[in-house]
Specification:
The chain has 326 residues and is α/β, with parallel strands linked by helices. It has two domains: 4-64 and 143-325, QueA-like, CATH 3.40.1780.10; 68-137, QueA-like (Thrombin, subunit H, Beta Barrel), CATH 2.40.10.240. Helix content is 17%, strand content 28%. It has seven helices and 17 strands. The protein has helices at residues 134-137, 154-157, 180-184, 222-230, 239-249, 288-297, 299-311; strands at 28-32, 39-43, 55-60, 62-64, 68-70, 77-85, 88-94, 104-107, 110-117, 124-128, 165-168, 188-193, 216-220, 233-237, 258-262, 275-281, 322-325. Strand 6 and strand 7 (88-94) form a beta hairpin. Helix 6 crosses helix 7 (299-311).
């Protein structure tokens, strides 16, 4: 079985995209052919050339919510992970040592009290005396590797043009490249998977199979199931779409409309039962995402493609360029 170190690669820090391209769709696109091993350097503006008659694009329509909050005095930071109700949040808190049960935090005109510290991960349950004005007071929880605070432009650019189901902490970044004009010209359907914090957690286990995969909530509609079953080839836009479709296909009742949670962990060698083509961004070394891509295209080919991307100075990660694996 593979080791986590098998999915490592060297990336110069200056290749991490700090901001999005000036216009959506202006990114470069590496095209990787699994059968031949051929690697081409193209642009995302050419994406539609690779969509054949009978293909179906499946995209994740989750909407990123402002999940990062600061106390009025600036001393406490809360990352809202989930909520049992509008006033009862599950949070990561910094600094955690100051926020023991009974301690309070003020955000706007709302006062929250720590009522519980969860045993795993140090997460807190915080109850507020009134609802927090999340849209006004919240910040986007940009990935740590951007090394900056969120800016006003991120409210629009760190969101797909088709986002509609609020619930994600992070964006499904492969979808960021699409414009409304391009999308309307291609046959497509949607799933919803609310991207969580676990997406950015590194794999610390030495052996891949020892990693505990995070869980994310998803839903799959009857319209999408019908479209997928009718399609000759499914093009997954992003690893989150892969997770939904491949998890659903492995359920006892197969690909059916439903909602649930998935902790599916795809790494080599794994088969793919639904997805035939994958559009994805470039991912962090030793991450579950590069492992998923390696399961789809083969570890050696993926690492070769990444090495070529570094050599050709592609832009990496959330605001970076993309890879089409056919």
């Amino acid at each position: 079985m593979p080791l986590t170190a098998d999915f490592d690669y060297e990336l110069p820090a200056d290749l991490i995209a700090q901001r999005p391209p000036e216009r959506r769709g202006d990114s470069r696109m590496m095209v990787v052919d699994r059968a031949s091993g051929r690697i081409e350097h193209r642009h995302f503006s050419e994406f539609s050339e690779f969509v054949r008659t009978g293909d179906l694009l499946v995209l994740n329509d989750t909407r990123v919510r402002p999940a990062r909050f600061f106390s009025n005095d600036g001393r406490i930071e809360l990352l809202k992970l989930d909520a049992d109700s509008p006033r009862r949040w599950k949070c990561l808190v910094k600094p955690g040592k100051r926020m023991k049960p009974g301690r309070t935090v003020e955000i706007g005109d709302a006062t929250g009290t720590v009522v519980e510290v969860l045993p795993e991960g140090g997460e807190r349950i915080v109850e507020f005396d009134r609802e927090v004005d999340e849209e006004t007071l919240g910040h986007l929880a940009l990935p740590h590797y951007l090394g900056r605070e969120d800016a006003p432009e991120d409210r629009e650019r760190y969101q797909t043009v088709f986002a509609r189901e609020t619930g994600a902490i992070a964006a499904p970044t492969a979808g960021l490249h699409f414009t409304p004009d391009l999308l309307v010209a291609l046959p497509h359907a949607f799933v919803t998977l609310h991207v969580g914090l676990g997406t950015f957690r590194p794999v610390s286990a030495e052996r891949v199979e020892e990693h505990t995969m995070h869980t994310e909530r998803y839903s799959l509609s009857s319209e999408t199931v019908a479209a997928v079953e009718k399609a000759e080839r499914v093009i997954a836009v992003g690893t989150t779409v892969v997770r939904v479709l491949e998890h659903a296909a492995r359920r006892p009742d197969g690909l059916r409309p439903h909602a649930g949670e998935t902790d599916i962990f795809l790494y080599p060698p794994r088969d793919f039962r639904v997805v035939g083509t994958l559009l994805t961004n470039f991912h962090l070394p030793k991450s579950t995402l590069i492992m998923l891509v390696s399961a789809f295209a083969g570890r050696e080919l993926v690492l070769e493609a990444y090495a070529r991307a570094v050599e050709a100075r592609y832009r990496f990660y959330s605001y970076g360029d993309c890879m089409l694996i056919v």
